[in-house]
Amino acid sequence: MGRRILTMPLLTLLVCLGLQALPGEAWAQTGKLAGTVTEADTGTPIPGTTVVLEGTTRGTVTDAEGRYVIVGLQPGTYDVRFSFVGFTTRLVDGVRVTSDRTTTLDAQLSTEVIEGAELIVEAERPVVDPNQTTSRALVTGEEISRLPATTLQDVVGRTANNYNGFLRGSRRFEAKTIIEGIDISDAFYQLSPTPSNFYGGLIYNNTNRADETNASIFTINPDVVSEVTVNTGATDASYSTGSGGVVAVSLAEGRGPLRGSFSARIAPQINTPGPDSLAFYPSDEVAAYFALRDALRSDPATQAKGQLFTFDEGKYAAGDDPEVDLRFSLGGSITDKWNFLLSGQWFQTNGFAPNSFNKRLGGTLKTAYNVSANSKLTALAIIEDQGLWGNWNNRSYHDYWRYYLEGVAQDDGGSFLGSLKWTQILSPESYFNVQLYRTYKRNRYGYVDDDGNGFTDVGEDGDFLDFTDPAVIDKYIGPGEEGKMFSTNISNAFADITGITAPDGTRLRAGQPQPYSEDVKSYMNGLKFDYANQINFNHFIQAGLEARLREFDYHQVYGIDQDGSKLNGLAEPFVLSDFSRKPWEFALYASDRMEYGGLIVNLGLRVEFVNRDTEEIADFFYPFLRDSVSVNGQTLYRNVFNRGDDVATDVFFNPRIGVSHPIGTRAAMYFSYARNQQLVPYTQLYEWYDGNNSNNPFFVYQDPAQEPITSNNYELGIQWEFTEGWGADVNAYMRSIENYGTAVFEATNRVPTGQESLVGSPHRFATSFGYADSRGIELVVRRAPLALADDFTLGLTASYTYATVESARNAEGTVGFADNDPDNPITQLPFNDAEDLDHFPQNIRGGASTLAGGYDRRHRGVLRSVASLPLDFSVGLTGSMESGFLYEKQIEVDERDRELLTGPTNFQIDLRLEKRFMFTPRFGADLYVDVTNLFNRHNVIAYNDNPQSSELLLFERNGNPGSRLVQRDGSTLYGPARNVYFGARVRF
């Protein structure tokens, strides 16, 4: 079957790629360079000294007190030149400027002795930052390039108190990802925890979303990153508000001569996690499968069923194909006014699970043109294709369908970002930006039939079937006894082909999934204006605004269990969910960074207005109206929500303050506070937005006006350089979070006088509820990259965290409200009473899945280190050790006892060994080996909690997490196995 090619995203990308601009030094994620120039002998200030950043148009002169300030600098490394007539020119190499910080660089000039003399020195990198008013983790591009990392998330995950994307007790969607000032967080994040997604997205829909662990629209290529900061305290007011923190990414620039690289990283195979005794197809289970198949085929009455047992040993390849990661980059100055950085990445893996396949192809272009000495036009384009435009499908393993993996829906997707910005430098102390941008993301799930034989066969990956097409319905969907690809009823006597029952009690399917397809499009058009001014040496003010117009187009066709659950019975073999929403967001921010005699105070306020583009439920006791819709000539009945007034626009006030004060010359203390508010993902707000088009009683709907997540964040810390080159940062933090969970209210259906009686009562609605308290102590030890001996340089960051996360658990379960009086005027459920429900605090539990739990690790240690060795060798190492997840007792349970048990401790070391070759000053090559999980530790990160199985009790008795490797939601029971990667890089 042919595939449809989208042209608008590609056209938008080509327009962005055609824009000519030079990398602007004044993005929203910018730094500041400041200091004092004095005479070396007397310490007297030198007014009028020229300060220039080599290779850029930025520079200034010192004031009457020898002081200078240059604002709006793109994070990166600069060479800074100080010159004044009668003094030796001083050139400081490798000055690191980081985002949202002041880099202090003082210079002492000596009286010139030799005409034209110039003193060149290497910049020192202090381990204590006296400008730090809140905690953050910083990883530079130079460090990233020497670490064994496939994605940027591999690096971010090895920062203090960050476990698998969960920051300080927040969920993944509570952490925002900002790239070059643009929020690329996935606002329609599919793994948001909702009460009904277990039914709607994992089992009956036959999809595996376990790899959606990073709530952003891109998988960022680490080769193009200048720096990444993980901000978990009082973040800058210019950033989008994330109640859990902000991950800010700054891209590298292409200054200087044209340079580039090409690299290839290959793993011959990806090993299966866990002990060798575990397998996807245990011999005794396979024997039972074949015995049942042969018995069915031998009886004429059951031969049709037997023919659906299509599995045979060797049918699905697992772990036999290599993982390939190819990257290139090219950048530099084209003219004195124009330079660029272009990069690309091709990643492909079959993973370790049977029939799995994932490929992505991405590219980044950052380019700008210096219109004048003070005006710049800057463009950014990023694209990532996961098959949407390149015409391939990705496949995932689903344990429920292990003997019929054609029953798992395939997927493709694509995303892009285009940005155009004007930067006007008003003076060395002030500038403004005007930026237009657009983001797009699309994901599709579905089934294929390339040869048209009526079934999805192994290896087919064409376009997805349209289950609203009557011809497709007639050919592929029918009652189980017809033996078609898809069954109208998964519990039908014929369709209930059990195959065998696994040891954990799971019935394994041998064929006939239900029809399912999904198409989700997310658009965002944005406008930003930022202004910054160092109005004097004591005050640096910033202000701006940002407007975002979003659009979500959602189309889903899914099967419903039991014919009686469909409003039109057998005539409606699927249920259609189809809607489009256009919420908008508008933000204003202002901040002032005050510096007086070493005391630094950061004050900021961000006010956000959010229109949800949704409406109230007019009557929760009669929430639906019966309607019909024609789809491809077929009439489908629908229960659509009876909606009323629009939900009011939210107004979020998010203040923040950070204070830093030096303690002598080698230490500083800091304090910060921030209040952050954000909505749950739009996925949750719009869940079943157009109603429940079935009689299924298991669905839970959403309160359209539920309260936002609100967090109050406090921290107190101290930095100390306890010996030369070694520094420590100790901080204690507390996060109190409101509306962390959900409570479910149930309304018994009543029929107003004169209205039609609709089947499907009672109806359940989820609203915001409860709180969470996250607190901990973090210790970070840093060593600046310093020489220990000739040809031996070591730099490292090590951290230890003790932390807990407690949340409120609803002791009442679903709260019911019955009303059978058709004339009762009460139409609303008392959602505000949710805060009065009986509840008790308990630590965040794990075990069942790593996708939404298991991140409360009391003890966590992280090590990140790079070292340069003799003979041009280098070593990069990352390591982590954390205590196990918490889980509930199953043996000798006392209902009054809320104690949780702790799983096994996890430990992992990843290593890179690299050898560098230089053939000419501009041409060289690197060879390296990466080993992940060096000691092949079997890290238990979940366990089989299926109540039908005795394995749940075995885990508590002996620590055995189960006889399977993968949970039904796609998450694994063990962390990754040891894998070896071989890499080569050519530099020119």
What's the count of strands? Answer: 50
Q: What's the end-to-end separation, in Å? A: 44 Å
Structural class: mainly beta
Q: How large a portion of the residues is in β-strands, by DSSP E?
A: over 45%
The mean pLDDT is: 86
- Biggest pleated-sheet summary: 22 strands, antiparallel, barrel
Shape: globular
Q: Any idea what the radius of gyration is?
A: 30 Å
Helix content: under 10%
Low-confidence runs: 1-28, 197-201
Q: How many helix segments?
A: 9
Oligomeric assembly:
single chain
Brief overview, please?
The chain has 988 residues and is mainly beta. It contains 9 helices and 50 strands. A hairpin with a 2-residue loop joins β11 and β12.
What does this entry look like structurally?
By secondary structure, the protein is mainly β. The protein contains nine helices and 50 strands. The chain has a 22-stranded antiparallel β-barrel. Strand 35 (650-662) and strand 36 form a beta hairpin. It is globular, with a radius of gyration of 30 Å.
Map the helices and strands.
Layout: H1 8-17, E1 31-39, E2 50-53, E3 59-61, E4 67-73, E5 76-83, E6 89-97, E7 102-104, E8 107-109, E9 118-122, E10 136-140, H2 141-144, H3 152-156, E11 162-163, E12 166-167, E13 175-179, E14 182-183, H4 197-203, E15 225-231, E16 245-251, E17 259-267, H5 283-298, H6 303-306, E18 323-333, E19 338-349, E20 358-372, E21 375-385, E22 410-427, E23 430-446, H7 470-476, E24 477-478, E25 486-487, E26 516-536, E27 539-558, E28 575-581, E29 584-596, E30 599-611, E31 615-617, E32 624-631, E33 634-641, E34 643-646, E35 650-662, E36 667-678, H8 682-685, E37 700-702, E38 709-723, E39 726-747, E40 763-789, E41 792-810, E42 815-817, E43 839-843, E44 859-869, E45 873-882, E46 886-888, E47 900-902, E48 906-918, E49 924-932, H9 951-958, E50 979-987
